[in-house]
Amino acid sequence: MTTSLGFIWKACIAPIALAITLSSCNQNANTAKETTADTTNIGVSAADFAGLVGQDSVKLYTISNGTISAAITNYGARVVSLLVPDNQGNPVDVVLGYKDLENYQKKGEGFYGAIVGRFGNRIAKGQFKLDDKPYQLELNDGVNTLHGGETGYYTKVWTVNKVTDNSVELHLLSPDGDAGYPGALDIYVTYSITSDNGLDIAYRATTDKKTIVNLTNHAYFNLSGEGAETITDHELMVKSDKYTPVDKTLIPTGELASVENTPFDFRTAKAIGKDIDADDEQLKIGGGYDHNFVLNKEDGLQHIATVTSPKTGIQMEILTEEPGLQFYSGNFMKDIKNAKGDKTYGLRSAFCLETQHFPDAPNQANFPSTVLSPGETYKTQSTYRFTTAK
What we know:
Blueprint: E1 51-53, E2 56-58, E3 60-64, E4 69-73, E5 78-85, E6 91-93, H1 101-104, E7 115-116, E8 122-123, E9 127-130, E10 133-136, E11 145-146, E12 159-164, E13 167-174, E14 185-193, E15 198-207, E16 211-212, E17 216-217, E18 235-238, E19 240-244, E20 257-258, E21 270-271, H2 281-286, E22 290-295, E23 302-308, E24 314-320, E25 324-328, E26 352-356, E27 371-372, E28 378-388
């Protein structure tokens, strides 16, 4: 049965047997192999991610197709690193992150690389109703709830169900009442490295009680390489005629505003920094871009955005089945210490492009629904595909 989330979702993963040794194993990952992979070239080691969070075992997994590779930890189901070749064929880590498990566990770590939920993005005052019954969520963003609350899925240890050379499937059972959300949500997320050099993320979930669901990945990207000074020189294109303006707490007003003649017009590729300091009320509220774009697309997996680094030539294409894309230009980044290779990340040294349903959708009747009922399946897919600019 399909979900009530605005359209029918489809997900298709086609794993291909590839020659690279997988790093690490989990107590429930019966097909996993012991690590022999050297991860020092991505600024982290498997040993720095091996440990316990409570009574749960955390480890690091490497998946690859021989050209690009990703390191995934089951703490928060996070992408710790993503190595792709630049226009000279040299490997570049394009995802920011911390150097070890300990730093990912610190309060306010910024959701680096994590799967966020039960509801990605913001919910006004952490409140919503289902069938006229009110629910109150954990508040962790001033007066609002952000990315699931203080104990969102980014804080959980996921079970590793299955691992191949180029994919890893993670599982989480979120109980009824978790962070205030109704219903026990049974979630599966599969990361796969595709044959055409994409990092594919497939999501699937069911519930035993009517609830709301909006899962996404919160990777911070810099296509010039993690630790590079800025992303304002990156060229961005987004297939979107409209965006959702926000109030002073970054909650959508409900308006679907045209990007025409505004700094939010990325329909033709332009540098992220071109208009970022424009005299625009919405940019002042967010300290830059921190807004949801309404995507020009039909149902199904479609190309909706492209980003290019002028320094490395690395180009990232984003494909998604989702109706929205949150563009965050790293406005709140400041002296982020203990990053990979003991680096420190500064202001606008990364961007996020989070495929999603719209923020505060449970309280906005004109936004696509995020309600999931028993007997339905939440199912969606997004891919970050890499090439080099010609």
